[in-house]
Specification:
Blueprint: E1 10-23, E2 37-45, E3 52-61, E4 73-84, H1 86-91, H2 96-121, H3 135-139
Antiparallel strand pairs: 1-4, 2-3, 3-4
């Protein structure tokens, strides 16, 4: 196996733009199974080079809606990944943007899961692990509805 893996899309850098975890005031218990995720994806173009792009992923957990107050906790993370897309654009001139978004979200969601687990670990709630998601299903607008046995994410 080669130690060098060539990729047409490389993550050059990433930044955690926002991170917080809060225990809701007045919460008497914590339901870690109550993980209602809201995702937002943005693609940003660099002013300096057309081949420098960023994918920004925002994940809110049990956002401020009263509907999720009973879970006892909430949080949010915003992570931005910076990509050089020159090779991707050359090899896939017609569909480079969906490939950038799909791969960018896949890479950044792993970072979101790790950071959120670390943020929550020191709280009275204890470590909260965000479940893995099907990025394709998210990007296709949840075309397939989850079965009754699967949790809604």
């Amino acid at each position: 196996m080669s130690p060098n893996i060539d990729s047409i899309l490389r993550l050059g850098d990433f930044r955690i733009m926002k991170s917080y975890f809060e225990v809701r005031p007045g919460a008497t218990s914590f339901d870690k199974s109550e993980l209602h995720l809201k995702l937002d994806i943005s693609v940003l173009q660099s002013n300096e080079s057309e081949n420098d792009m960023a994918v920004q992923l925002t994940v809110e957990v049990n956002s401020a809606d009263d509907e999720y107050e009973a879970a006892g906790f909430a949080g949010a993370l915003v992570v931005t990944g910076f990509f050089d897309i020159s090779t991707l654009r050359e090899e896939h001139p017609d569909d480079w943007e969906p490939m950038l978004v799909y791969n960018g979200v896949t890479v950044l969601f792993g970072t979101i899961r790790t950071v959120y687990a670390d943020l929550s670990a020191a709280s009275p709630v204890g470590r909260v692990i965000i479940p893995a998601v099907n990025v394709g299903q998210i990007l296709n607008g949840g075309a397939e509805s989850p079965s009754e046995d699967e949790p809604e994410v």
